[in-house]
Amino acid sequence: MHELSIALSIVDMATEEAERRGDAHIVAVHLKLGPLSGVVKEALLSSYQLACQGTALDGSRLLIEETVAAIYCPACQAERPLASIQWFCCSVCNTPASEVLKGRELEVVALEIQP
Hints:
This protein is of the alpha+beta class. It is about 25% helix and about 30% strand. The strands form 2 sheets. Strands 2-1-6 form a 3-stranded mixed β-sheet, with helices on one face. Strands 4-3-5 form a 3-stranded antiparallel β-sheet, with no helix packed on it. Strand 1, helix 2 (about 40-50) and strand 2 form a beta-alpha-beta unit. The chain is elongated and about 55 Å long.
């Protein structure tokens, strides 16, 4: 389960930021997660709680915003959402596409910090 190593990295990064700010307390970590990231949301949430135990983030929340996957359609010459992550074709004209524009995100976008 690689979600635990990802959760540990998130906790390390947030802990470093809290230490840099002095007496700051992390209340929540905001994360963007794409369907093509290879990360299972539920596994990451449970791993996060485990990773936080005994750290300055104990009791904090991991708030995950799930993003949509999108490709560039060469026929339509436009960005199109994927109807399915197993079918990399334009959702409008069904042309196969190889250029992924969105959906691979695994990004900490914000920390809620209390002094």
